[in-house]
Amino acid sequence: MRLTQTLLAAALLAGPALAADGTGLDAGDLAVAESLRGKAMAGSAAWSVVESLTTEVGPRLAGTEADARAVRWAEAKFRAMGFDKVYLEPVTFPVWLRQRERAEVLAPFPQPLVVTALGGSIGTGEKPLDAEVAEFANLDALKAAPEGSLAGKIAFISNRMVRFKDGRGYGPAVGARSNGAVEAARKGAVAIVIRSIGTSNDRFAHTGTMRYLPDVPRIPAAALSNPDADLLVNMLGRGQPVTLRLDLSAETREAYTSHNVIGEITGRELPGEVVTLGGHLDSWDQGTGAIDDGAGVGITMAAGALIGELPQAPRRTVRVIAYANEEQGLYGGKAYAEAREAAGEIDAHQLSAESDFGAGRVYALRAGVDPAAWPVIEKIGEVLAPLGVVTEAGVGSPGPDVGPIVAKGATWAQLAQDGTDYFDYHHTPNDTLDKIDPKALDQQVAAYAVLAWLAAETEVDFGRAPAKAAP
Amino acid sequence: MRLTQTLLAAALLAGPALAADGTGLDAGDLAVAESLRGKAMAGSAAWSVVESLTTEVGPRLAGTEADARAVRWAEAKFRAMGFDKVYLEPVTFPVWLRQRERAEVLAPFPQPLVVTALGGSIGTGEKPLDAEVAEFANLDALKAAPEGSLAGKIAFISNRMVRFKDGRGYGPAVGARSNGAVEAARKGAVAIVIRSIGTSNDRFAHTGTMRYLPDVPRIPAAALSNPDADLLVNMLGRGQPVTLRLDLSAETREAYTSHNVIGEITGRELPGEVVTLGGHLDSWDQGTGAIDDGAGVGITMAAGALIGELPQAPRRTVRVIAYANEEQGLYGGKAYAEAREAAGEIDAHQLSAESDFGAGRVYALRAGVDPAAWPVIEKIGEVLAPLGVVTEAGVGSPGPDVGPIVAKGATWAQLAQDGTDYFDYHHTPNDTLDKIDPKALDQQVAAYAVLAWLAAETEVDFGRAPAKAAP
């Protein structure tokens, strides 16, 4: 420890003499980056942060009492971890609260099903809804159904999400969740159930947001667990009408104000320029929000704190943001971007990244920056390479809460994570602490700390976000 | 197919000329056994039987309307599968029905927990029960607590079941479930919660029976899922009192009569001598009872049906029994044994086996028979060897429903299954069809068909059950 710090101090004193390669970084900067990497890999604070959040707060659906507790928790945690500036930023949104959710097959083979309401769904009313099920292989098949053909029926979309390391099976499947209710209502359906947008065969139903349109009747929408979707498919395969009873209720409230919680390591030379990391503080209500997104909060808090422990801060400010209400519409990310725009601070954002894809290891560095700044990204990638991270040009996208500020011109980086098992757990009761490998979290902390340090230390300006990813 | 049947017919006509090795079996008998093995491995009916039971009946807690449907299902299925004699045998037992079950931490870190009532537990009364939690590392630690030390508290046993292929982690752990309520009540506790007796970290609480004693106050008993038990341990580790709210209710009813459902392939020479296979027809109420014990029912029905399809029946009768209410006290097995004893038919039982350890492959043949009959067991083992089955002397035990008749002197065989993942699923909502590998079922059908055929065909008498397993 002592030896390392001496080396670092010497390296920092050496100054920017080697910064002629377009990276704006010198050997000292890189030595610090390597030391951050080593420290994180030797054991970071990330797991204990997630343990604290999931144990002491637990599920924290946006707009609930637990949301408020999570905000207090994050504020205290930032302070305890040595961030020199900690503050809250208001984020206002409507509230949706899950209440009753039950489903059962009434005929021809009565048995209960595991179901969960989709976020934002209306209930079935005072009494349960009983109706015949009409199966569709996917959302397109539902769209192709004749007008009125679902009058009085419950639509059932049975397509299964496919597992990929990068989660690309989510996009093609999630339309059933987002838009299924609208499409089913257009055909006359009285409700919709979908196969869970998840990859696991564990008997958990995956929740997540859905939307209504002003000109389309609102119908209740719910997801069945994969084994229950299988069961329903098997029943329907026997050729007899299948009658389902659906019993959902939910409460909605207007205009709750939660907060983005922000911790900073103030830059030593350019405190007004910021590199942002972050995750989202809210979670769905069923699990304890360990991988979605306690992990992201823990990783980025721990990475920021490591930088805060250095003998001196980087040139620019490192800002870690625990975003409010990502799950129900990126409210925290949008509020953050709007407030920065109003303050004329978009250009002050040098590079922004979010960790919101679970707790799997990072395998790629990607970025959307001014081409002139690409050498910095490549240099960062060199320091990340021993972590098993490759630098990929021309691909990638910012994290969900970073999207809104990128849309306003901010640059971004992505540390792509292995999401092979992410959709086994996310948005289910099974999103709990035990699903996290502490060693994998350490690797991610190492990657975020290196990224944040070098991006905050370089003399290069990352510019404005290009129209496309890459240099 | 045609060629095989011709060969079999020829083999059967050859008669018992080679039966001088103490096995009472000749080359023809063995050729039939090998053909049964091959047919089963090429694709048996077992999976489709389990699919039918889980889809068309689903969960079938003893004493419910679904129990009655399961009995009708089994009767019809035996007939459809070609058993020449199908009948019901009454089994009477008290009924326990799960109603409400909720738990939450009230302080210091409010959040809901996933909990399930243990089978037989009383409820918490009209209002939920709020009390401080006292943790014990295991049942022995609870037993060692001073008298009265748990007055007004909820005992929590946190020990974790260990995973083994043969399930031997169950015995040391399950005492907390069976006897925890009695031991906790003796110390003054008002309720008990235990870590689930299961090996998975999925967020399902495992149910299963518990018992009360006449002279000890009855207190509510429930299991937390493993992630929730972890959570509670982590909370308690912070040193502050933890208050739990437990809200359980259950209904009990007296004297429901269900049925063992029995299908037979009548023996061609000694129809009064029987070889019995079986599984239990009832299930817990949370899953669809696919691995516990739809699998056992499907495997043994399919094995019996394969024997029924032979050009001629074996010398003895092959009887497949779908036992009633195993889960809540081996009622079906006990009723079966008592009825046979009353009829003087214990000695008519040549060999009895049950499949009730999930859907994993068979890896060992074990038996409790007269030592003079051990050569038959070894010969059966030779035919099973290509299935990856070894013959083990001196170890093993009969299946749960076979236990009662073995206690009365009947001999038994055990086809030991790989139960590595059995306790991940059993007694949880996650016990569903997708957890079954159809190929593994086929291997088990092969093993049971070979066992039943050769045991029913041999001229050797298996005698009376020895005091210990093995010859």
From TrEMBL, chains A, B:
GO terms for biological process: proteolysis. It holds the Pfam family Peptidase_M28. Residues 1-19 form the signal peptide. One of its GO terms (cellular component) is extracellular region. Its main location: endoplasmic reticulum. GO terms for molecular function: carboxypeptidase activity; metal ion binding; metallodipeptidase activity. It is found in: Endoplasmic reticulum; Golgi apparatus; Lysosome; Secreted. Residues 260-444 form the Peptidase M28 domain. The keyword Secreted applies. Keywords: Carboxypeptidase, Endoplasmic reticulum, Glycoprotein, Golgi apparatus, Hydrolase, Lysosome, Metal-binding, Metalloprotease, Protease, Secreted, Signal, Zinc, Zymogen. The keyword Chloroplast does not apply. It comes from the Bacteria. Homodimer. The monomeric form is inactive while the homodimer is active. This is Carboxypeptidase Q. It comes from Arenimonas metalli CF5-1.
